[in-house]
Amino acid sequence: MQKTFELWDNEEKRVIEVVAKRQGREWRAFCPKHADKKHPNLDINEEKQVFLCRACGWKGHIYQSNLKERRVPKPRDLQEAMEKAEKYHRNLSDSLLIFLKEARGLTAEIIRKYKIGLANTHPEYGGGERITIPMLKNKKCINIRFHSLKDEKPKDYPLTAGLPYAVYLYPENQLRNKEIWLCEGELDVLCALSHGLPAITVTSGAGTWKNEFTPLFDGKKVNIVFDCDEPGKKGAERVAEILSRVAQVRIIDLGLREGQDVTDWFVNYGKSKEELEKLAKRTPIFEKLTKAEQEIRNNALELASQSLTVKELLETKLPEEEFLIRNGLMPKGGYILLAGATKEGKTILALQMGLHLISATPFLEQFPIKEKRRVLYLYAENTLNGLNNILDKQIAGLQQSFEISNDDLDNLILQGTK
User: Fold this and answer.
1) Is the CB of residue 64 less than 8 Å from the CB of residue 6?
2) What is the pLDDT of residues 96-153, one digit of tens each?
3) I want to staple 159 with a disulfide (CB 3.0 to 4.6 A). Which of 52, 71, 144, 251 is the partner?
């Protein structure tokens, strides 16, 4: 006897599906965490809802079991789920509406269309208030996702009693589009939809995927915008590798801080749909690359992210530029080139500049320096004796007008390059 289980991988934050055979009171399967396909080392205890691999130690809890038996829910279960969804939708308070609009970027139209609601608690697992998101398929409610409002763990639950599709493409109606934005999480999808993007997600976390989903994306353009963290990156690469067999896939790097997502793009940074679409156009189509090839690709992407058109530059509100040496001489970011013929004094001028930087004294008496800096001076042609002669005279001259301490001199480092 065989049974399919969905196991929750807490490290990768996704659901992994395995097929197990009955072994006494438990079930046994091949562990997906290592390559051994001769010895089924993964033990699954359905009664306790836990699993453990005897070979690698991978363990956790069952996300959902008995999938094949639960594929066709009873009409009564679907009716009860829809009634709950409608009830939760009517339960939306004014304060939650404001939260969904201002903090999550949802429009009133999207909230109404997808029947977003509020439950005081989960009917099976208890806990505090949760945002409810019905999983609608052919105008029937096949499940409901319960999202925590206060970062309770786990972050979200399905409504499981008698219902299938704990792992599901949401919202399924977006599959009609030729271009799809694949997000990480239902609330991110609803935010993207609110901003005019044809978006979809897989319930249950980054990297979760079912083979049956793949043909649904055949011939489409898919832009993956998962969270800016390690699970999001790994999940995006895993899904991209699968989908690239049937679709044109791009993994979009939002360039945000660790843990931020597409909702932050719209809500916290005030960026637009058009800016995100431009970013997608600049992103190369996904290919499975070697480590060396990926490093080259990442360097190229970093360079591309630093380029912009003249129009974009003129439309960008830039902060006031900071200078290490003021009056436009040495910017805080970027490079300056000191050039001249041989024996024209480039070494003398560069060392003089370094001395003023470490002491925060005006360079050439007309270029102010706000604060002391640490300076690395690289030399190739000069000798230490030659540098000593130059610096000895420069320091003596500098001390006639300004104070320069031994601590300051510790911040000018001379490094040979031979």
Assistant:
1) yes
2) 999 999 999 999 999 999 999 999 888 777 778 899 999 888 788 888 888 888 766 6
3) 144
Q: With contact defined as beta carbons under 8 Å apart, do 240 and 249 qualify?
A: yes
List the beta bridge partners of residue 133.
Answer: 145
Burial of 11 (0-12, 13-18, 19+ CB in 10 A): exposed
Structure token digits, residue 177? 């589009």
pLDDT reading at 161 higher than 60 = no
Instruction: Give residues with Cβ within 8 angstroms of 298, minimum separation 6.
Output: none
| pLDDT of the residue at 70 | 43
**Do strands 50-53 and 59-65 pair parallel, antiparallel, or not at all (unpaired)?**
antiparallel
In this structure, what token pair is assigned to residue 149? 């409002």
One-letter amino acid of 177: N
What would the mean pLDDT of 342-347 be, rounded to a whole number? 89
Q: Specify whether the CB–CB gap between 52 and 58 falls below 8 A.
A: yes
Would you say the pTM of this structure is higher than 0.85?
no
Closest CA to 169 of 134, 200, 132: 200
Q: Dump pLDDT digits (tens) for 269-279.
A: 999 999 999 99
Looking at residue 163, its pLDDT comes to: 59
